[in-house]
């Protein structure tokens, strides 16, 4: 190899399907907003790639839409926690799930990600389409904050209602 080759000549480009996650993460890191057409293309490519690599167990293997996947990456999540890896695919397949895990294990994301994904893929309706019940005001506020972060790239809206003194 010639020593005078530039750095760009050294970097090889892999197939498009292998670089979709890299492209989407680089869009997020550079602060660029993907056009709707680009987002649709990347989303379709991600979903196609994810169907081929179901064994990897990452968020990219769950067939999530680009806006939800982008929010997950933006939040800094790289790999799903065990509770997320076990429950998200089940919930996405419309199964009822009762799960227990330790505090800080990612339970909130485990139920919010598939809920938002299902709400996003269905036609828009007027009124509430999902309700999350929490045993305390603090937990309700925390859940709504996480929900807003995951839904920020979508047209979904969140609202919190609390009672008590």
Automatic annotation (TrEMBL):
GO terms for cellular component: cytosol. Residues 57-85 form the DEAD-box RNA helicase Q domain. Pfam families: DEAD. This is 16837_t:CDS:1. Residues 88-165 form the Helicase ATP-binding domain. PANTHER family: ATP-DEPENDENT RNA HELICASE RHLE-RELATED (PTHR47959), RNA HELICASE (PTHR47959:SF8). It comes from Funneliformis geosporum. Keywords: ATP-binding, Helicase, Hydrolase, Nucleotide-binding, RNA-binding. Residues 1-31 are annotated as: Disordered. The keyword Ribonucleoprotein does not apply. Residues 18-28 have a biased composition (Low complexity). Signal peptide: none annotated. One of its GO terms (molecular function) is hydrolase activity. A motif (Q motif) lies at residues 57-85.
